[in-house]
Design brief:
The protein has a domain of 244 residues: Ribokinase (UDP-N-acetylmuramoyl-L-alanine:D-glutamate ligase, 3-Layer(aba) Sandwich), CATH 3.40.1190. Helices cover 34% and strands 21% of the residues. The strands form two sheets. Strands 1, 4, 5, 6, 9, 10, 11, 12, 13, 14 and 15 form an eleven-stranded mixed β-sheet that branches. Helix 2 links the parallel strand 4 and strand 5. The chain starts with 19 loop residues before the first strand and ends in an 8-residue tail after the last helix. The relative contact order is 0.14.
Length: 370
C-alpha cells in the first residue's frame, strides 16, 4: 500500500519469490585477524560485497528471502563462494557461472585482503579484483521481466561499486533499475564511492553520468555529502565538508539538493561516524524523506572490532523497516543499531539476530545473558 505522505509503495509479499534481490559482485575477503596482511601466515575467509552484504543482512538477521545476481568463475574458488552465499540463506539460483581457463586470464574470483586496524592504525583494504567474473556481466545476462514481474522480487538493491567495475556493469545496473521501476519494484542504490574504481574507467565523466542515470530511477539513495559531491558533481559550498559535522547542515543540504535533482527519489539515508581511532567511533544513522529528517540515537563511543560492512548493515536495517511499512524514524534506528552490531563481529556482515537489534534499539545494556 502506498503511503500518501512519503510515496512509498512496495509490492505485497504474497506470490513473490524474494523480498529483495541484490545486483553486484561477491568477493572473497581474506582476513588476517589481529595480524597484518604483510606479515600474515593464515587468513580467515569470508564472502562479501557492498551490494550482496545488504541481501545477506536481510536474510540472516531479519529472516527475509533474498537472492543475489552475480557471476562466479567455474573453479574451486567459485564453488567455495557459492557455498558461503548459500549458507547465509541467500538464493543462488541466479548466480551465473563463467568458464575458467586454468590460470585466470579470462575470468577470475575477486579477492579483497582486509585488515581491521586497531587504535591509531587505520583499517586497510587491498583489492585484487580486475577481470573478475562479475565485472563482465551485461544487461543481457538476466531476464529482468521475470526477476521483477508478478512472481519476482519486491525490492532491488544495487550500488556504485558494481556500477564502477566496468562499462558493461554500468549498463547492467542501469538496465536493472529501469526494469524494476517499470514493474513498480522499489530501487535502493548505495553510492559507495570508490575513486580507485571510477578513475580506471575509460570515460573520465563516467562516475557522474552513470550515477545520475541510476539515481534517476531510484527510490532510496544511500550516500553522504562526500559521495553526493564526488558522484554527482555537487558544489562544495552546497555539500560542505566530509566527516562528522558539528551541525547537521552539510549532509542535510546535500540530501535536499538530491531530492531537487531526482523527482523519483523518496528517501536519502546515510551514517555519521567520527573515527576517533580504528577501535572507537561516534556512530549515528540519518534518514531523510521529502517531509522530514529522522536521526537515530547517537552512540558517541562505539567500540569496534571490524568496521567493514557497517554501512551495508545500516542499509539492510533501513530496507527492512521500509518493507515492514514503518516510518523514517524507525528506519534510522533499525539501520543504525544493525550497523553498530555488524562492527562488533569479524567479517563483512552482522552475525546477530533480530532480537539483538531490537534490544539495542530499546537501549538494553550489554550485560551477560545466561
Amino acid at each position: 500500500m502506498k503511503d500518501p505522505m512519503t510515496g512509498w509503495a512496495v509490492p505485497a509479499a504474497e506470490g513473490r519469490a524474494w523480498d529483495c534481490v541484490a545486483l553486484g559482485e561477491v568477493m572473497l575477503r581474506l582476513d588476517p585477524g589481529e595480524d597484518r596482511v604483510r606479515s600474515a601466515r593464515a587468513f580467515n575467509v569470508w564472502e562479501g560485497g557492498g551490494e550482496y552484504n545488504v541481501a545477506r543482512g536481510l536474510s540472516r538477521t531479519f529472516r527475509r528471502p533474498t537472492a543475489v545476481l552475480t557471476a562466479l568463475p567455474c573453479n574451486e574458488l567459485g564453488v567455495l563462494t557459492e557455498s558461503l552465499i548459500a549458507s547465509a540463506r541467500v538464493d543462488v539460483r541466479h548466480v551465473l557461472w563463467r568458464e575458467w581457463d586454468g590460470i585466470g586470464r579470462n575470468t577470475r574470483m575477486g579477492l579483497n585482503f582486509t585488515e581491521r586496524g586497531f587504535g591509531v592504525r587505520a583499517p586497510l583494504g587491498v583489492s585484487d579484483r580486475a577481470n573478475s567474473a562479475a565485472s563482465a556481466l551485461t544487461p543481457e545476462d538476466f531476464d529482468w521481466d521475470a526477476l521483477f514481474g508478478s512472481g519476482g522480487a519486491r525490492w532491488l538493491h544495487t550500488g556504485g561499486i558494481f556500477a564502477a567495475l566496468s562499462e558493461s556493469t554500468a549498463r547492467t545496473a542501469v538496465a536493472a533499475v529501469k526494469a524494476a521501476r517499470r514493474h513498480g519494484v522499489p530501487v535502493s542504490y548505495d553510492l559507495n564511492h570508490r575513486a580507485s574504481l571510477w578513475n580506471s574507467h575509460p570515460d573520465p565523466s563516467a562516475a557522474r553520468e552513470v550515477n545520475r542515470c541510476i539515481i534517476a530511477e531510484a527510490d532510496l539513495l544511500f550516500g553522504d555529502d562526500h559521495g553526493l559531491r564526488a558522484c554527482l558533481g555537487l558544489a562544495d559550498d552546497w555539500a560542505g565538508r566530509r566527516g562528522w559535522p558539528t551541525d547537521p547542515a552539510p549532509p542535510a543540504r546535500a540530501a535536499t539538493l538530491a531530492f531537487d535533482m531526482f523527482p523519483n527519489l523518496k528517501g536519502v539515508a546515510y551514517t555519521l561516524r567520527d573515527p576517533r581511532s580504528a577501535s572507537a567511533n561516534s556512530w549515528q544513522g540519518v534518514f531523510h524523506d521529502r517531509i522530514d529528517r529522522h536521526v537515530s540515537v547517537l552512540r558517541s563511543d562505539l567500540e569496534i572490532l571490524d568496521r567493514v560492512g557497517g554501512g551495508d548493515a545500516f542499509a539492510s536495517g533501513v530496507i527492512h523497516a521500509l518493507l515492514n511499512g514503518e516510518d523514517g524514524r524507525r528506519a534510522a534506528e533499525l539501520g543504525a543499531a544493525h550497523g553498530a552490531l555488524a562492527m562488533t563481529t569479524p567479517g563483512d556482515n552482522a552475525n546477530v539476530g533480530e532480537d539483538e537489534v531490537e534490544a539495542l534499539v530499546r537501549g538494553d545494556k550489554a550485560a551477560a545473558r545466561r
